[in-house]
Amino acid sequence: MNRIIIALLFLIGCHFGSAQNILGKWKTIDDETGKEKSIVEIYEDKGKIYGKIVELINPLKENPKCSQCKGERKDQPIKDMVIIEGLEKDDDVYEGGTILNPENGKEYKCRLKIEDDKDTLQVRGYIGFFYKTQYWKRVN
Predict the structure, then answer these.
(1) What are the structural domains of the chain?
(2) What beta strand segments (E) does the chain contain?
(3) Quick one: which of 35, 90, 111, 120 could link to 115 by a disulfide (CB 3.0–4.6 Å)?
(4) pTM value?
(5) Sign, CA torsion 94/88/17/52
């Protein structure tokens, strides 16, 4: 009986431990230029995964706003903006939510997956069969 309880606790710990891996701060890397752009903090709220920009690295303008965003994000500061919304864990990926590109104001379906090295996050935004992938690095 004790072995079953220990095994269950181990499995539960592994499940929650793997869910925690995605949480924290990640440095975004522009897939075209290779330059660091921002720090995004990924967090959990009511069982879903969200991400907000907590720091901009070398912004072109001081406190830039999302001029091309729509709705409540229109002309709001990009810093502290929630850009990843409503993802849920499905096996080893997080999906079912959206990601916003504050440079063009467009929103895409989103999928996140931690790479084998545990310090790289594969970030994929897509529409239908077309997608774009970036690789973000964990901030220690």
Answers:
(1) 2-138 (2.40.128.520)
(2) 24-29, 36-45, 48-56, 82-90, 93-101, 106-114, 120-127, 130-138
(3) 120
(4) 0.83
(5) positive
